[in-house]
Design brief:
It is a single chain. The longest helix is centred in the N-terminal third of the chain and has 27 residues. The protein is mostly helical. It starts with 13 loop residues before the first helix and ends in a 16-residue tail after the last helix. Helix 1 packs antiparallel against helix 2. It contains 2 helices and no strands. 2% of the residues are buried.
Length: 85
């Protein structure tokens, strides 16, 4: 069975999609700067802070991955292997 690619829902306005990506990106950059400052000042970075950064990064990947996948060929692989069953 071949999986269908999921795309962004058509009912979502483009400005909202861009706002979500921009907000997640800004949060990730601010978190990266804060993490660097923790290390620079010799402080231990809390585990919860690393978890929050990983969650934001996962959100960015989850939002951006469906739009990047739309450029792929729907036929599948070109390496000669049969598709998984």
């Amino acid at each position: 069975m071949q999986m269908q690619l999921q795309r962004r829902p058509s009912g979502v306005p483009d400005w909202l999609y861009v706002a979500i990506v921009a907000a997640l990106g800004v949060y990730f950059v601010i978190g990266g700067i804060a993490w660097t400052m923790f290390i620079w000042n010799g402080l231990n970075v809390p585990d919860s802070f690393i978890t929050l950064l990983a969650t934001i990064a996962g959100g960015l990947v989850g939002v951006l991955a469906p739009s990047a996948a739309s450029g792929r060929s729907p036929q599948g692989r070109d390496d000669g292997r049969p598709p998984p069953q």
